[in-house]
Amino acid sequence: xxxxxAVIRHEKLNQVKAALEAIDISGMTVQxxxxxxxxxxxxxxxxxxxxxxxxxxxxxxxxxxxxxxxxAIVDALIQGARTGEIGDGKIFISQVERCIRIRTGEEGDExx
Amino acid sequence: xxxxxxxxxxxxxxxxxVLMMTPAVGFFYGGMxxxxxxxxxxxxxxxxxxxxTIIWVVFGFxxxxxxxxxxxxxxxxxxxxxxxxxxxxxxxLLWFPATIPPLLYMLFQATFxxxxxxxxxxxxxxxxxxxxxxxxxxxxxxxxxxPVAHWVWxxxxxxxxxxxxxxxxxxxxxxxxxxxxxxxxVIGKRLSKTNGCTEEPAHNIPFVVLGGALLWIGWFGFxxxxxxxxxxxxxxxxxxxxxxxxxxxxxxxxxSYLHLGRTSVLGMITGAVVGLVAITxxxxxxxxxxxxxxxxxxxxxxxxxxQLRKRLGFDDALDVWACHGMGGTFGAIATGFLxxxxxxxxxxxxxxxxGGGIDLLVKQLIAVxxxxxxxxxxxxxxxxxxxxxxxxxxxxxxxxxxxxxxxQHGENAYS
Lengths: 112, 415
Hints:
Chain A is built from two helices and six strands. By secondary structure, chain A is of the alpha+beta class. Chain A has a single domain (about 1-110), classed as 2-Layer Sandwich (Alpha-Beta Plaits). In chain A, the strands form two sheets. Chain A has a four-stranded antiparallel β-sheet, covered by helices on one side. A two-stranded antiparallel sheet of chain A has the order 3-4. In chain A, helix 1 (about 15-20) packs antiparallel against helix 2. The radius of gyration of chain A is 17 Å and the shape is elongated. The termini of chain A are close together. Chain B is mainly α. Chain B has one domain (about 5-410): Ammonium transporter fold (Orthogonal Bundle). Helix content of chain B is about 65%, strand content about 0%. Chain B contains 14 helices and no strands. In chain B, helix 4 runs antiparallel to helix 6. Chain B starts with a helix and ends in a 6-residue tail after the last helix. The mean pLDDT of chain B is about 95. Chains A and B meet through helix 1 of A and helix 13 of B.
């Protein structure tokens, strides 16, 4: 099982959801987060000089799926979230050890 | 000069109530936007309270309420409050009340100019630079509010024609609503409204209800104070105002239930405000039955106008056109049907449904049509000019994503 975490732009959530639904992925957890990348946020100039907004608002989408679905999901996330400009976000994929459905006690891929 | 103490007491109270409506609009609007825009609405409310007060005291009041020049504009007799005092006699002009000092009349009217300008900010929210908003609204006060206030209340051509607008259906609500329509057609959409992007829902409906409730209370001064005295007409105005708001809030809730299956709280408070808007021009001229009719129909019109706006796709962020523009238009026209001299002897020709024929209705339609056309054309041209000569009027896409609060004010509403 893989856990896929994608940091995306706020306004791209709908398009990401649509892209995932198109490949039959419905489950996800979404959080509002703040963060920054290589650019350390964004720098703006106003009349008093430069100022920096160092933590930018983003959405964090978390999905856990069987191994074989992970690549298709990555493609869907990129398709939904990409604008081509700096700040489109990142995708992190990690191994999940166990998954248990609370209602039934099922484990593994059946519990996803 | 001995003025009427009862009238003074009520008019100071009314002035304070109307002034309260502007920060109330800040909460009402701010709660409907995303959380990173909350402060922008409160901040702009405060800026407007300052800038419009200055304009009003220096020349605005004089041009709106000074002696008439050709039906179109006042004069500069009252420049810098010349002749407008606490002890001075009221100027010998028909529209000045005899029971309160002209200085108090000036401040009461100032609060109307302030709230009208503040109504606009919700429609054009989340895309213009603060400097551009401020300059636009200051020029707007001079080019739109002052002439229209003069036409309707300060002895201008609509006043002379005899169209009725008790507390500002044309002057306040049509001007603000049509301004947002014309302006948003020129300035375009926000990022969150462009193709396929995720919409930002109202972030704090409790603030919307708080602001809306304060507006309702403030409207006692807005409509009740427009009687310009502590008298029977003021009593009628506050009564019909509350009836219309109460009915309209429930009707909106019902429409929302029938259309969407659930009764929106945001919808009910919006409905109440639409009821207040629509009764505004009529509040000194209609009875309690008229108020129930207005409170029932107004939310249907504004609800329909919101559906139309969604279809047409212009980005009036908080539906100022649908609620204020269309609500005010309906109220002004409804006055032509429902006005009755039984509540106000100033009604010389009764409304159509009270046996007065179409005389008043025609005047109302002319007033509404003229104000619509004037405001739409002037604002459309103003915005076209702004976009052409001020390339940096708009905030960048990155700034839009971060939110106007931090970008324009350097502060967050919530840490």
